[in-house]
């Protein structure tokens, strides 16, 4: 068989690098194209090793003055984010790995879905912002969206032991983040350094902060609503600090099917790349030779109010996902610049959500207008 040709959007990030490791250790896969934004040294390194046909440097300003002289002779350089759509939809591509962070990932996800590609989706923000448009587009183009997010990969795997109408609920597990046991007053003084040190996962800065506020789980509830076409009422969250059970599906007969593996993103990435097949694992197996305890604890939405916003938005739909996502992206950026406190991230998001002019069935233009509006509101929030 032909090797699977992959486009990796966001190759220089945490998921992008883990994807390269999967490709490195898996037969029958080649990288057709890759994109990076500011980490251009790392982009060129990856191009030298994987010899893609195209490399996209999405940031014009970062690319200006950078010496791309080390790119392989057979690799064409494209500068500017508008080229993402080209490498996401090229006829040669079999699978698009959508691993850009934030709303910047939306155009690539949409281009791949519109072109009918198989999309290995890490960029959950795409579905949070535009889940209804993307799922409708996938239904008409024949695009298959396969989850990379570990919880959704677990659900996707567990769902295969029943029929869609036999599902009674899905239970997303959450590590609870580094501040799981912090009191209200301890949460108020959380620093950037503390928030970036996640106990079980090594990830990019934005999702690390999202995990610490539990906004990540909120976004994942919304992501699950769209990926699996389930109402918010059938989605639950449980805190599981060991990050071994990645999620579960309960069926109508009350049998619960869970997926277990050590916390290593290479497994869900590999599964999305090889589905419907399974092949020899790149990530290590579960070690059951030593005693260990798996805990399951109900989440505390008083200390982690962000989580509640996820259920509200999953139930409400419309423009609420675009507003929550944009408010959160801006709030996280402000927190990382030390302009906003840790606990104010969720408070600001909630206030901005409450103020917005809701549209039930928005088009892309209206979603983007909400995104812009929410970012402006957050900027105002900080300046007062
Ligand atoms: P990183 O911050 O490590 O990487 C982000 C990637 O996006 C980098 O390649 C970065 O380029 C690129 N990028 C940043 N800004 C832009 C932009 N404006 N335009 C184009 N490209 C841009 O993030 P992660 O890899 O951790 O996360 C990526 C996505 O995967 C997120 O949506 C996250 O929620 C999701 N995810 C991540 C998990 C993880 O374990 N890391 C788990 C589950 C989901 P550069 O570095 O060159 O600037
Ligand atoms: Mg996850």
- Find the structural class using helix and strand composition: alpha/beta
Strand content: 15-25%
SSE order, as H and E? EHEHEHEHEHEHEHEHHHHEEEHHHHH
Low-confidence stretches: none
Named once each, the bound ligands are: NADPH dihydro-nicotinamide-adenine-dinucleotide phosphate, magnesium ion
Question: Share of helix among residues?
Answer: 40-55%
Number of helices: 16
Global geometry: globular
What Rg, in angstroms, do the CA atoms define?
20 Å
Global mean pLDDT:
97
Q: State the total count of DSSP E strands.
A: 11
Spatial arrangement of strands, main beta sheet: 4-3-2-1-5-6-7
The biggest beta sheet, please? 7 strands, parallel
Task: State the distance separating the first and last CA atoms.
Answer: 61 Å
Architecture overview:
The chain is an alpha/beta fold. It is built from 16 helices and eleven strands. The protein has helices at residues 14-24, 40-50, 60-63, 84-89, 106-114, 124-141, 150-159, 184-188, 192-196, 205-213, 215-227, 266-274, 306-316, 320-336, 342-355, 364-383; strands spanning 4-9, 29-36, 54-57, 76-79, 95-98, 118-121, 144-147, 167-174, 235-239, 245-251, 256-260. The strands form two sheets. Strands 4-3-2-1-5-6-7 form a seven-stranded parallel β-sheet, with helices on both faces. Helix 6 packs parallel to helix 11 (215-227), helix 6 (124-141) packs antiparallel against helix 14 (320-336) and helix 14 packs antiparallel against helix 15. The N and C termini lie far apart (61 Å). The mean pLDDT is 97. The structure holds NADPH dihydro-nicotinamide-adenine-dinucleotide phosphate and magnesium ion. NADPH dihydro-nicotinamide-adenine-dinucleotide phosphate (NDP) binds next to helix 1, helix 6 and helix 10.
């Amino acid at each position: 068989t032909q090797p699977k040709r992959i486009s990796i959007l966001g190759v220089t990030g945490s998921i992008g690098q883990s994807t390269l490791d999967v490709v490195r250790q898996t037969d029958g896969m080649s990288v057709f194209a890759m994109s990076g934004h500011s980490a251009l040294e790392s982009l060129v390194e990856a191009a030298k090793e994987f010899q893609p046909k195209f490399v996209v440097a999405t940031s014009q300003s970062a690319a200006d003055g950078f010496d791309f002289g080390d790119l392989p002779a057979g690799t064409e350089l494209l500068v500017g984010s508008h080229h993402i759509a080209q490498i996401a939809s090229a006829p040669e591509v079999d699978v698009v790995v959508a691993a850009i962070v934030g709303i910047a990932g939306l155009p690539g996800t949409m281009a791949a879905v519109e072109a009918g590609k198989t999309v290995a989706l890490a960029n959950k923000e795409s579905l949070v912002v535009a889940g209804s448009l993307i799922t409708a587009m996938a239904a008409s183009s024949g695009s298959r969206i396969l989850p990379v997010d570990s919880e959704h990969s677990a659900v996707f795997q567990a769902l295969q032991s029943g029929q869609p109408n036999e599902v009674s609920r899905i239970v997303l597990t959450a590590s609870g983040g580094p501040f799981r046991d912090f009191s209200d007053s301890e949460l108020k003084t959380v620093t950037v350094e503390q928030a970036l040190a996640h106990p079980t996962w090594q990830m990019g800065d934005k999702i690390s902060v999202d995990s610490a506020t539990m906004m990540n789980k909120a976004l994942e509830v919304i992501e699950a609503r769209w990926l699996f076409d389930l109402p918010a009422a059938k989605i639950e969250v449980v805190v599981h600090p060991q990050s071994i059970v990645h999620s579960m599906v309960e069926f109508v007969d009350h049998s619960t099917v869970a997926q277990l593996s050590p916390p290593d993103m290479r497994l869900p990435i590999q599964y999305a790349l090889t589905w419907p097949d399974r092949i020899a694992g790149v990530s290590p197996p579960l070690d059951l030779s030593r005693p260990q305890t798996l805990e399951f604890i109900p989440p505390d939405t008083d200390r982690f109010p962000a989580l509640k916003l996820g259920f509200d938005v999953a139930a409400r739909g419309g423009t609420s996902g675009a507003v929550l996502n944009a408010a959160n992206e801006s709030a996280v950026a402000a927190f990382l610049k030390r302009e906003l406190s840790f606990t104010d991230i969720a408070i600001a998001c909630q206030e901005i959500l409450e103020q917005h002019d809701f549209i039930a069935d928005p088009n892309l233009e209206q979603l983007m207008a909400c995104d812009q509006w929410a970012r402006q509101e957050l900027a105002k929030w900080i300046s007062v």
